[in-house]
Amino acid sequence: MYRNERGMKSCLKNKVLFFFVASLICLLSNKIFAEDYLLIDFQSSPSYIETNIPAFPVTQSVPSGSTVYVNEVEVPQYSYSIFTPVDLLEGYNTVTVRIVKSDLSEIVYSKEIYYNPSYDTSYKELLYVNSRYYVQPDNDDFWGTLVIDTNANTFLGIIKEKRVHGITRNGDEIILDGGERYSTGCNCYTGVTLPSPVTGVVNARYIFSYDNQFVYYSNKKVDLASNAVVETLPITLPSNRGDITIDDSKLIIDTGYIDTSTNTFTSLSYRAGLHKYWGGLAIDPSSSYVLTSSYDWADGYLCIVDASDGALLERYKTNNKNDYEGDILFSPDGSTAYSGAWGNTYYRGGGIRIVDMDTLDLVGKFNLNGARSLSISQDGKIYASAFAGPLTHRGIVELTPQENPSVLETTKIFYVSLMSTNSYYYKNMIYYKPPVEDGDNIDTAIDNCPDTYNPSQEDSDGDGVGNACDAKCPCFDGISVVDYIDFLIFASEWNETGEGFSSDIDGDGSVGLSDLTIFARHWLSSCSG
Questions:
Q1: Could you tell me which residues are beta bridge partners of residue 266?
Q2: What is the pLDDT of residue 299?
Q3: What's the confidence (pLDDT) of residue 113?
Q4: How far apart are CA 304 and CA 325, in angstroms?
Q5: Region label for 69, one of left (φ > 0), alpha (ψ between -120 and 50) or beta (otherwise)
Q6: 3 pLDDT tier (thresholds 50, 70, 90)
Q7: From CA 194, how far away is CA 373, in angstroms rounded?
Q8: What is the rounded CA–CA span in Å between residue 371 and residue 324?
């Protein structure tokens, strides 16, 4: 009787049913979106988000001539976009965006943000990004640290009025303005501040040892466990350039290196081939080469020098538009180097040079205006700042290297209008926190539920996602195969909100597109009701 009643109800919604059938076919053929990358902004984020950060960013592009209200407060715009924080109360918070277009038509949508100070993010893969946001009533702008959950494809929150200047190698802590130590597990202050930190330098960067025991800055070596200065360095480190070898034996700067075991400085110039202004400096994982970048008047250079004697081995200039050179980093296996540059507001340009570290050949360049700041994940994805082209290409771009290392593919764009017109002065903006295994002794790379303890790896529906973190199977009629009858039930509940709807597969309180996506993934699969 239940099946007949729901089937009759669904027949009354022929137009809706036709839409769902068409959508299902599109989903099953992976053609629902024409774009080949995922655009992530406030509007496209999940309708329910849990966070341990007490402020949440509302950021996206908006139609020209619109007036935008967040929780009925008009918010300022910058270049047809908004980026403003909403303060959260502990518990559930509804954040509503209302866009009044120039023709007076409106777009309205809401998200539920659950602020839970006890929420544990220690296992998550996160990005911490220096970002500029705007607030009313005086349209003041502030620098903060945007936090992005890369796996959940959403923003986690924003640390207001604080920049990030470094992250431990294991990702447990970041260092904020004023030297405050901040836990990435609770996204809260530890109550500890580094002794005599670097202040007043927007590009200041702290150098962490690979064994996570020490941090180096200014003329100090600080033990992280005791938060005490254990050595005064023989030379003051530059505030925004320098690196450490992967075995923690040498601190490298442009004028030489410090032997960390003897705390002695050896003068050795790594400045060969440099232009007028500094960009970045990095030593490759083999400790054989020091890479430096520099620029002047729309000319940018990438230099490779011998780490042992400072001899210039290669100097690359791809065009006359690689102005404002920035971060240099390496693939996890050390085989490839990536060097970012902003370009400039007149010539545009900018992008990421790609170097084969086995041959030291420049093998490619990915054109991307604004790409001065780079970070890389433990599986080799590159995160780059961007400020070019369509509005949707502004923010943080996730790039995935292909089989041919000279090719990068755009896979995600976390949209943020985070840069003003003079922001090419700023680098060291993106810091990557690696994920932590969930304790089930299954390697994260193959764990079918990497954020939840599931040593059995049970996957009843065979969809590649373990039962421990799989959404409930959409077999609504209790018969083992997800089929047309289940689809009729789904169609009858489309766009419904509230509790008790079986078609609310993701449990966010409404039946929508995310539920349809899960339903399509289970189509014709067998599962218990």
A1: 257
A2: 83
A3: 95
A4: 14
A5: beta
A6: very low
A7: 25
A8: 9
Which uninterrupted H or E stretch holds 519? Answer: helix 513-521
User: Cα–Cα distance between 345 and 79 in angstroms, integer?
Assistant: 14
Average pLDDT over residues 107-118: 94
Reduce the DSSP state of residue 413 to 3 states and report it.
strand
Token couple for 523: 């189509």
Tokens standing for residue 67: 């007036």
- Give the distance between the most distant pair of CA atoms in the chain: 86
* Rounded-to-integer distance, Cα 472 and Cα 508, Å: 13
Q: Please state the pTM of the whole predicted model.
A: 0.78
Q: Look at 154-163, 211-220, 478-487 and tell me which has the smallest mean pLDDT.
A: 478-487
- Reported residue count of the chain is 529
| Whole-angstrom distance, CA of residue 74 vs CA of residue 99 | 10
Residue 15: in which H helix or E strand, if any?
A: helix 14-28
Query: For residue 505, what are its two tokens?
Result: 């597969």
Sign of CA dihedral 322, 328, 332, 334: positive
**Residue 451 exposure: Cα atoms within 13 Å on the Cβ side:** 16
Query: Higher-confidence residue: 375 or 298?
Result: 375
Q: Could you report the per-residue pLDDT of 439-488, keeping only the tens digit for each?
A: 555 655 567 776 565 677 777 667 666 765 655 667 776 666 788 787 88
**Burial (Cβ within 10 Å: 0-12, 13-18, ≥19) of residue 422:** exposed
Q: How far apart are CA 302 and CA 285, in angstroms?
A: 18
> How many other CB atoms are there within 10 angstroms of residue 17's CB atom?
18
Angle at the Cα of 167 (from 164 to 169), degrees rounded to 5? 170
For the chain, percent of residues with pLDDT exceeding 70: 79
Lowest-confidence pick of 15-29, 234-248, 291-305, 396-410: 15-29
The CA-based dihedral angle spanning residues 216, 219, 220, 221, taken in that order and rounded to the nearest 10 degrees: 50
Q: Phi/psi of residue 292, each to 5°?
A: -130, 150
| Residue 518, helix vs strand vs coil | helix
Above 50 in pLDDT, residue 36? yes
* CA quadruple 196, 197, 202, 207: dihedral sign: positive
Of 293, 288, 374, the C-alpha closest to 335 is 288
The two tokens of residue 30 are: 């992976």
Rounded distance between C-alpha atoms, residue 113 and residue 318, angstroms: 46
Name the DSSP letter for residue 414. E
Q: What is the pLDDT of residue 37?
A: 83
SS3 227: coil
The two tokens of residue 215 are 């941090």
Task: Tell me how far apart the alpha carbons of residues 469 and 521 are, in angstroms, rounded to a whole number.
Answer: 15
User: How far, in whole angstroms, is CA 168 from its chain's centroid?
Assistant: 17
Contact (CB, 8 A) for 425 and 159: no
